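Lab meeting, action items carried over

1. Structure of the two-component assembly. Owner: GW. Status: complete.
Input record:
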Amino acid sequence: GAVVSQHPSWVICKSGTSVKIECRSLDFQATTMFWYRQFPKQSLMLMATSNEGSKATYEQGVEKDKFLINHASLTLSTLTVTSAHPEDSSFYICSSTRTRGFSNQPQHFGDGTRLSIL
Amino acid sequence: KQEVTQIPAALSVPEGENLVLNCSFTDSAIYNLQWFRQDPGKGLTSLLLIQSSQREQTSGRLNASLDKSSGRSTLYIAASQPGDSATYLCAVEGNTDKLIFGTGTRLQVFP
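Predicted assembly:
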């Protein structure tokens, strides 16, 4: 069964709305979670690395004030797309790994959130 | 900067064929390489993970090999089935936990 739960799976909203996406690890502690974005027919691009209890680390070109990440517990990270616009429409996917000490563990991915901004 | 490329970009084959999907990466200093499957509109399912010290991993009809020195990995799918139709992604991990993904191979297996 799924070890990472992502919610919601699909969002349609008006331009200017802020949208929150949740990513939960279900049966293990995730010190680190990752947020990716995938445009149609393209591969996954890492947006940011979310660390429990500290600020997220954003990849170059990703606006931290636009994409707010909170990782308040070892099982939950949230991504908020603030004042979303049509160009933010994309497929957002989170992933997590077990806490460090379990070497070479595969990343487990959520089922993704399809965000459509009208 | 690590770059990951997959060939072919798309592949359409009849059921029963044995397939080889290719992945190449530019920086051989990797921690591991992973192969994933992605169905349309869905997240990723991990298929195989090869540690940098390993040469190959097998799971059922899937076999993945790794040649770190040449920056290449292959995913071999034996006796392909229509249910294998999906996009296959390879990704390499460095020492930062970050995964760098390839461009993907869209596979269609028809009956």
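2. GW to write a short summary for the group page. Key points so far: Chain A touches chain B through 22 residues (CB under 8 Å). The mean pLDDT of chain A is 88.
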